[in-house]
Amino acid sequence: DTAVSQTPKYLVTQMGNDKSIKCEQNLGHDTMYWYKQDSKKFLKIMFSYNNKELIINETVPNRFSPKSPDKAHLNLHINSLELGDSAVYFCASSQLDNSGNTIYFGEGSWLTVV
Amino acid sequence: AQTVTQSQPEMSVQEAETVTLSCTYDTSENNYYLFWYKQPPSRQMILVIRQEAYKQQNATENRFSVNFQKAAKSFSLKISDSQLGDTAMYFCAFMKQEGGTALIFGKGTTLSVSS
Hints:
The structure holds two protein chains of two kinds. By secondary structure, chain A is mostly beta strands.
């Protein structure tokens, strides 16, 4: 079973469209994240949720809206897509416990806006 | 704010040789974690090794080991007996020791292993 799974893996869409990427983790973690990896492969945090509560909200256009229906799911909705939104979006999860804190990543969702 | 710097955009090594990837970071925190992640062309993010800042002993995972110098804020990755499958981009990352905090990544080092 995949620990952190994202769908879709590949998405090609036109400018102006609205799209969503879904993420689910079966690790029982309390915290989930969305990261964006741009064309230069730089990885940057976008959002983080802890037990369905938004705790990190970096400087991201408000066209991006995360939603966490429960602590195992964190979806990313993007309105009015722009060319610059083309990137790989990674979902991740983590849990702080006695063994420490490690973030586990999904396989990424490759978004191409044309 | 924390920053992570990887000063080597690209490195190359021959199979079976040893290579060291550099990473420095800046933080005012005393308790934190440091990580190396590997990203092959598939773009999957694979955890290579983790170091807790409170531990003086350097972490090791098979052919991978780190040289953690807390005072110098340095965290280098040594890959011994390099294999073709080690070819990938390697990211150094920092995380505060608090629940819910995010990883701060360096810009990555592309490692090429040749036969």
